């Protein structure tokens, strides 16, 4: 193959689109991951139990519940990312999504009374119910984001 082939490939619209779009993709991905980690950290601070400590101690129910939080945040954040066109929009919708999702999580925690203690005690069925409720709210919030 000659060098003109490679110069033609590098000059192709597809490669040019990738070269200009890839840095934006990475930036949007990084912003969304920062939002998710921030939301998860805020949730860990707001919960009545110390999930991270429980997880470090081998509490499977706490690990399952926290995994539900991560997925529950990721679902609406991913929808928010897909409907946003700029970094500013990602930030605005991301913060709004996290705020609404954390509020919904707290409501679930209050409505499902006794679950925090049951999770501290390592009860897997309690964690499964909590995860289900949090994922359900994530899906509903995601649908609301798409209008």
TrEMBL record:
A Pfam family the protein falls into: DUF350
Protein localization: Cell membrane
Membrane-spanning intervals of the chain: 20-46, 58-78, 90-112, 124-145
Primary site of residence: membrane
Membrane topology: Multi-pass membrane protein
Protein transport keyword on record: no
Highest taxon of the lineage: Bacteria
PANTHER family listed in its UniProt record: UPF0719 INNER MEMBRANE PROTEIN YJFL
UniProt record similarity statement: Belongs to the UPF0719 family.
The name this protein goes by in its record: DUF350 domain-containing protein
Organismal lineage: Bacteria, Pseudomonadati, Pseudomonadota, Alphaproteobacteria, Caulobacterales
């Amino acid at each position: 193959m000659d060098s003109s082939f490679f110069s033609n490939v590098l000059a192709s619209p597809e490669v040019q689109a990738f070269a200009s779009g890839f840095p934006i993709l990475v930036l949007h991905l990084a912003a969304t991951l920062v939002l998710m980690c921030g939301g998860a950290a805020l949730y860990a601070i707001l919960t009545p139990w110390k999930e991270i400590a429980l997880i470090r101690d081998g509490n499977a129910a706490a690990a399952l519940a926290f995994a539900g939080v991560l997925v529950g945040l990721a679902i609406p954040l991913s929808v928010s990312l897909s409907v946003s066109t700029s970094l500013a929009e990602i930030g605005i919708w991301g913060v709004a999504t996290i705020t609404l999702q954390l509020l919904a999580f707290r409501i679930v925690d209050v409505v499902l009374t006794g679950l925090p203690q049951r999770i501290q005690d390592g009860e897997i069925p309690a964690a499964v119910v909590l995860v289900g409720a949090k994922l359900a709210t994530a899906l509903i919030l995601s649908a609301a984001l798409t209008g």
